[in-house]
Amino acid sequence: MDVYLDNHSTTPCDPRVVDAMLPWFTEQPGNAASRSHKWGYAARSATEHARGQLAERLGCSPKELVFTSGATESDNLAVLGVLRANRDRGDHLITVATEHKAVLDAARQAEAEGFRVTVLPCNPDGTVALQRISEAITDRTVLVSVMWANNEVGTLQPMAEITALCHERGVWVHTDAAQALGSCDLDLGAVPVDLMSLSAHKAYGPKGVGALFVRRTRPRVKIEPLQYGGGHERGIRSGTLPVPLIVGFGVAASLFDPDEVKRIAGLRDQLREGLLAVGGVEVNGSENRLAGNLHVYIEGVEAEALMMGCRSIAMSSGSACTSATLAPSHVLRAMGLDPDRAAGSIRFGLGRFNTEAQIEFAVQQLGAKITELRAMAHLYEV
Ligand SMILES: *Cc1c(COP(=O)(O)O)cnc(C)c1O
Fold first, then answer.
1. Which residues does the annotation mark as catalytic?
2. Residues at CB less than 6 angstroms from ligand 1
3. Are residues 145 and 246 in the same domain?
């Protein structure tokens, strides 16, 4: 049996998403910017329908959504685009050490351009303390960027409180919600952040498309594009719209189902209980985490050895983006995990297509391999 438990890295496309996309590759070749024939109009109406589906999911106006190539681009656009466009408001960005590299490296670039950047430390569970944000805000602060949900340990940040605090001080809030789209209630009315990054492929949509929510009223957030061209997406993101991908993104967003999230959390708990029963296993991170996320430390076992010994199970050590190196990820380091604990820690990401039977199989395989690796380590010591 093969079991895919790496849904934080990417999710499979839902078959309903694929079905909706197919005609837009072949029978419907139109460019959504072509205004002179019915193929162009059809493509345009398809992208606008998808924009509506995403807006419905988020509780915003379709006009506030800019399609991008994914959350990496959205994060870059949010951080650099807002800082560069609002020099009259200030020059200071605040973010957190556990953010995705797309935010942290964009922040580094901003620093190279002369902006000031504060990277806040996190609590041991991966959350950021409100007090720290409050203390870091100055009258030069333009933007605070805090992710909705962490892609490694699944920690959910207190976004409602962070947003209220920042707005009280006249500071805009950006959140990277790439991991949250498939798994959390996202209501821009209830949690009125000013910018939100999204990615389709973390939520059962296709790879290569994402969006940035940019608030248009109360307040209207000024943003500069990263690239120049045909003036698509109200000039914020030039480039021909990838119609099939956008259609798939819209369908993926419309398939969100809170009951499914509960089912996934149940599977996650099944996996957690199964692994804890092996003994010498501890959970890393916060109680308040993504439904599909489990991050565990397994005493006396190298994560890499366990992954190599269980090749029919997809899981991850560190973050997928840095797993080419064996250094602990920046997230685990920020949470204060020592290198040994980090090297013995594994991330599981459960999703829509996992079943109870798969989890049962995974627990049995992992349990047996953990016991075997520990016995070998013991023999070696003797
Ligand atoms: C995957 C991910 C990204 C990058 O998204 P892409 O669409 O692959 O560029 C950014 N932030 C978080 C939190 C992610 O999980």
1. 321
2. 70-72, 75, 100, 102, 147, 151, 176, 178-179, 199, 201-202, 210
3. yes
Q: Domain containing 365: what range? A: 3-10+257-381
Q: Which atom of ligand 1 is nearest to the CA of 147?
A: 13
Q: How many CB atoms lie within 10 A of CB 12?
A: 14
What pTM does this model have? 0.97
Q: What is the model's pLDDT at position 319? A: 44
For atom 15 of ligand 1, which residue has the closest CA? 151
Q: How far apart are CA 122 and CA 157, in angstroms?
A: 10
> Judging by beta carbons within 10 Å of its beta carbon (0-12, 13-18, 19+), is residue 263 exposed, middle or buried?
middle
Q: Over the stretch 44-66, which tens digit does the pLDDT of each residue have?
A: 999 999 999 999 999 999 999 99
Measured from the Cα of 210, ligand 1's closest atom is 7
Question: Do 173 and 98 belong to one domain?
Answer: yes
**Residue 162 shares a structural domain with residue 276:** no
Each residue's pLDDT tens digit, 200-216: 999 999 999 999 999 99
**Residue to mutate (ligand 1; options 95, 151, 155, 347; most atoms within 8 A of CB):** 151
CATH number of the domain where residue 304 is located: 3.90.1150.10
Indicate if 72 and 105 belong to the same structural domain: yes
pLDDT range class, residue 324, cuts 50, 70, 90: low
Place of tokens 């399609």: 67
User: At CA 69, angle to CA 67 and CA 73, rounded to 5?
Assistant: 95
Same domain, 227 and 279: no
**Domains contained in the chain, number:** 2
